[in-house]
Write a structure and sequence with these properties.
The complex is a heterotrimer of chains A (366), B (264) and C (261). With 366 residues, chain A is α/β, with parallel strands linked by helices. Chain A has two domains: 233 residues, Rossmann fold; 63 residues, Alpha-Beta Plaits (2-Layer Sandwich). Helix content of chain A is 33%, strand content 26%. A six-stranded mixed sheet of chain A has the order 5-6-7-3-8-9, sandwiched between helices. Chain A has a four-stranded antiparallel sheet with strand order 11-12-10-13, with helices on one face. Chain A has a three-stranded antiparallel sheet with strand order 2-1-4. Chain A starts with 26 loop residues before the first helix and ends in a 6-residue tail after the last helix. With 264 residues, chain B is an all-alpha fold. Chain B has one domain. Chain B is built from eleven helices and no strands. The longest helix of chain B has 36 residues. In chain C, helix 2 packs antiparallel against helix 3, helix 3 runs parallel beside helix 7 and helix 7 runs antiparallel to helix 10. The chains are: A alpha/beta (366), B mainly alpha (264), C mainly alpha (261). The interface between B and C is large, with 41 and 35 residues.
Chain lengths: 366, 264, 261
């Protein structure tokens, strides 16, 4: 299993004592060994779903006799996350990402399996655990609509029992990092979607959590706001050393933030490892792009060199097996000679890899 | 127009089927009020040795059973819905259609009132049994009751539409509605049959439109008035309907003008 | 404990800020409430223009009932009802997750989250009416006054549990706001002493929807109509309801988080 071990807290920039974001609690017993922050073993969640049928007759029948179907939202997954890692959790809708995050944050009890986060069993929902973690959900707001976020934050301060001093320092750092400016003092309903998400981040991180679960944090945001949020998450991780597990639909998020990814599909873990290894593992082919002189590719049969992915205006894209890529390229050059104007061999784009896995349902275990 | 209404009614019926549970729960609320005052008046009748001005507990029960039916078909809720629609901006798409939004409300009233009436019946049956009600209803009373009920429904509907239309200017329509409802609570025959209202209150009930909303049709069916009085009261009802219709059109027109001037 | 107190005070402060932003609303609410209260009193006077007692209740005693009714309904409207609505909304929008992730007791959090300050008017009017009834009743001894306060507190607990249970139902049924109509309908009936109602309604209002007991029993206490048995029953009922409410909430929460109940 390939795993990039990121050690932001010890490498990178050290913690200055006055760095408000630096984790203050629980450092002691975790610093002893490079112990995992998140440990998940054979975690499983099965939902009983009431089967509904259309039509009045079926509806009436359903009142008396309900039919249930078991749905395996999470079908036994195992992984570990080390301190300070930023891990991307990938998968199509309904793959089990959110269910897993909910179990890890204690909102759902699993059907079977084990999990420890910071040494706690999440679903016991001990206050000691809740104080040290956070869950941010992209399209849900924990702030009150009609009042400024600053007022909601004061409630959070009391709920987490933060001292005035610690609260001020953390909020100061978050204000700077997120460039909140006056946003905290405007009623939440007057904020744009992106501004609101920044304020949600401030609310979700005010307790300086050691573990942050981010569920689609950039959903619905425009491109520039997405990249701002990304920069923030990366900088936050660097400064605080918090461990982050994030799900996202946007590959850009994952590429920018996560060296390591978990790919989940139909409740099963398909891949756990470095982002760079994902293509090797899941897409055993390379892209061979040839541009022909004069823009004319008519009459040439490319299928003997590889699978023709696209063919337009004298530009041909072939998928060739990873192992034989060099030989095929050489063969192509031999066959076409100086009719080739440009030739490149590259890894397929990560979106395509993921998409291919999800549509083909390939079960390639890392 | 008939085809338009057919479509509107079908759409409302589908909505009604979807929200049937909610509807029946709301029914509970409209059934409870008459029941409360029925119990209170029965207690008063018993304390006086059996009757209040000729009303025995069974008579009160007959009165309130009929009142419940009348109230069911007459009461309107447009003023509450409409304020919400204006505030949420849901009214704009309707305004651009070539059909006066009042027709949506009419269709809604017809469907929901008939649909939920089924739910009222069992409760009425329980009351009839509990209080040993005996109805003494002459055929002519039924003949007059039906048009009187329709007039009452039209009266209440146009009043509520006029109040609803004020939502174009003010977001405080709810307060106006409450004020109207509470006045009706006293004068329309809910807290007491009109004939039991003390002197001045009774005159107010008949001079203002309130008495014609619930009290008059209820009394006609119950046999509280003779034929001539009943016809006279229905004439007044019709006059109030005409007035309320005119008022609702005027308020609506000014409301639209105010709304389109400001934009929303 | 003091942390919990501070949190409640903060909730209150937030809500006050929110309501102050809509001052005209407050005035209109006030006007509505005054009209509603006085028409209710008017109804009582009309009834008593035909009699001196209703099922043994004299006019002053009945005025006390109306006053208690507005106190109980007002406290419900002040915090329990809006909080129950908020809970249902949290479940519907999925934002309850955020509440559950906070290191405080979730039942505490959802029970006192919303405060609708305009309802204080309702409570004050109720208190005024109770006092007016008291003075008309003649001498009310200290014991009766003490019993009144204690039974009123019990009644408020019963109303709280009722609304907590209705709110908790949201864990199983998503569109449950409509169930609050049940609360409102039965609350409406609590304006008169429950002993005037037919058996089935009396039963419903003292067991399933105990709002009737919550209003009638304190009024009985001042009217000298409460006996030892009634007192013991309301104490027992309050204790049982409190335990039941907590249990039901936990079961609801377990169902929400998918633990086997």
């Amino acid at each position: 299993m390939t795993r990039c071990s990121l050690n932001f807290p010890s490498s990178g920039r050290g913690f200055a004592p006055n760095d408000a974001l630096a984790l203050t609690c629980g450092r002691g017993h975790h610093a002893v060994v490079a112990q995992s922050i998140v440990e998940v073993r054979e975690l499983r969640k099965t939902f009983k779903v009431h089967e509904r049928e259309a039509g009045l007759g079926a509806t009436v029948r359903g009142v008396f006799k309900r039919r249930f179907k078991d749905v395996n939202a999470v079908a036994g997954i195992t992984f570990r996350i080390d301190p300070g890692e930023v891990v991307g959790f990938l998968g199509p809708n309904g793959a089990g990402k959110t269910t897993t995050l909910k179990m890890l944050s204690g909102l759902l009890n699993p059907t079977a399996g084990e999990a420890r986060v910071l040494g706690y069993v999440p679903w016991r929902r001990e206050n000691a655990y809740l104080r040290r973690m956070t869950l941010l959900i992209g399209n849900r707001s924990q702030l009150q609509w009609d009042i400024p976020a600053a007022d909601s934050l004061l409630v959070l301060k009391e709920i987490y029992g933060l001292t005035d001093d610690r609260y001020r320092r953390t909020l100061g750092e978050l204000t700077e990092l997120l460039a909140l400016g006056e946003l905290l003092h405007k009623p939440v309903r007057n904020l744009s979607l992106g501004e609101r998400m920044k304020v949600e981040f401030a609310a979700g991180l005010i307790q300086s959590p050691e573990v942050a679960f981010l569920d689609e944090p950039t959903i619905g945001l425009d491109v520039s706001m997405q990249s701002r949020i990304r920069q923030f998450v990366s900088e936050y991780n660097r400064r605080s050393g918090a461990t982050i597990l994030l799900t996202s639909h946007y590959m850009d998020d994952v590429v920018a933030l996560c060296k390591r990814v978990l790919v989940i599909h139909h409740g099963k873990l398909l891949y756990d490892g470095a982002l760079s290894g994902l293509a090797d593992r899941l897409a055993p082919y390379k892209r061979l792009v040839a541009t022909l002189r004069g823009g004319n590719a008519d009459g040439i049969d490319f299928s003997s060199f590889g699978e023709v992915a696209s063919r337009e205006e004298g530009k041909v894209t072939l998928h060739v097996p990873r192992e034989g890529a060099a030989e095929r390229t050489a063969a192509l050059v031999r066959a076409l000679g100086d009719r080739i104007e440009d030739l490149s061999v590259e890894d397929p784009p990560i979106e395509d890899v993921i998409d291919r896995v999800f549509t083909s349902g390939a079960e390639v275990m890392a | 127009m008939i085809r338009v209404y057919r479509a509107l009614l079908i759409a409302q019926l589908q909505l009604a089927a979807q929200y049937r549970l909610a509807m029946f729960l709301y029914l509970l609320f409209s059934i409870m009020r008459p029941l409360i005052f029925l119990a209170a008046w029965s207690a008063v009748a018993l304390a006086r040795g059996g009757s209040v001005n000729g009303f025995t507990p069974a008579d009160f029960a007959a009165y309130y059973v009929i009142l419940t039916i009348v109230q069911h078909f007459v009461s309107a809720w447009n003023q509450y819905d409409f304020e919400l629609q204006v505030r949420m901006g849901q009214i704009s798409p309707r305004l651009v259609r070539p059909l006066d939004p009042i027709h949506y409300a009419v269709a809604e009233n017809i469907v929901w009132k008939s649909f939920t009436f089924v739910g009222v019946l069992p409760v009425l049956a329980i009351i009839v049994v509990t209080y040993g009600v005996q109805f003494r209803i002459e055929p002519w009373q039924i003949v007059l009751f039906v048009p009187s009920l329709l007039l009452a429904a039209a009266l209440q509907f146009f009043i509520s539409w006029a109040i609803a239309s004020t939502a174009f200017w003010t977001t405080r329509t709810h307060a106006v509605s409450t004020l109207f409802d509470r006045t009706a609570f006293i004068f329309a025959g809910q807290i007491a049959p009109l004939s039991l209202l003390p002197g001045v209150l009774q005159q107010v009930a008949y001079v203002l439109p309130f008495g014609y909303i619930y009290g008059v049709p209820t009394d006609i069916l119950r046999g509280g008035h003779d034929l001539v009085t009943s016809l006279a009261l229905m004439g007044l009802q019709a006059a109030w309907v005409a007035a309320a219709f005119a008022a609702s059109r005027i308020v609506w027109r000014f409301g639209i003008r105010a709304y389109t001037a400001v934009g929303a | 404990m003091s942390r919990y107190l501070r949190i409640v005070l903060l909730f209150a402060k937030l809500e006050a800020q929110f309501e102050l932003a809509y001052r005209t609303n407050f005035l209109f609410d006030l006007l509505q409430q005054v009209v509603i209260t006085f028409t209710s009193l008017g109804a009582v006077f009309i009834l008593f223009s035909y009699t001196d007692t209703m099922n043994g209740w004299t006019l002053p005693a009945m005025i006390v009932v109306v006053g208690v009714f507005y106190i109980v309904q007002g406290v419900g409207d002040l915090v329990f009802l809006p909080s129950a609505q908020q809970l249902m909304e949290h479940v519907r929008l999925g934002t309850l997750d955020f509440v559950l992730l906070k290191p405080v007791d979730a039942q505490f959090f959802v029970s006192l989250r919303r405060i609708k300050f305009t309802s204080i008017v309702e409570i004050l009017l109720g208190v005024g009416i109770v006092v007016a009834g008291f003075t008309r009743l003649g001498a009310v001894d200290l014991v009766a006054a003490a019993l009144f306060v204690i039974t009123l507190a019990c009644g408020l607990v019963l109303v709280y549990v009722l609304l907590l249970v209705l709110g908790t139902l949201a864990f199983w049924f998503v569109r449950v706001e409509n169930l609050l109509v049940v609360y409102e309908a039965f609350t409406d009936a609590a304006r008169f002493p429950i002993d005037i109602y037919p058996f089935w309604l009396r039963f419903a209002m003292s067991s399933l929807v105990p709002i009737g007991v919550a209003v009638t029993v304190p009024a009985q206490a001042v009217a000298g109509r409460l006996d030892g048995v009634g007192l013991i029953v309301i104490f027992a009922a309050t204790a049982a309801a409190t335990v039941f409410g907590r249990w039901f909430w936990k079961v609801g929460l377990r169902s929400y988080t998918g633990a086997s109940a």
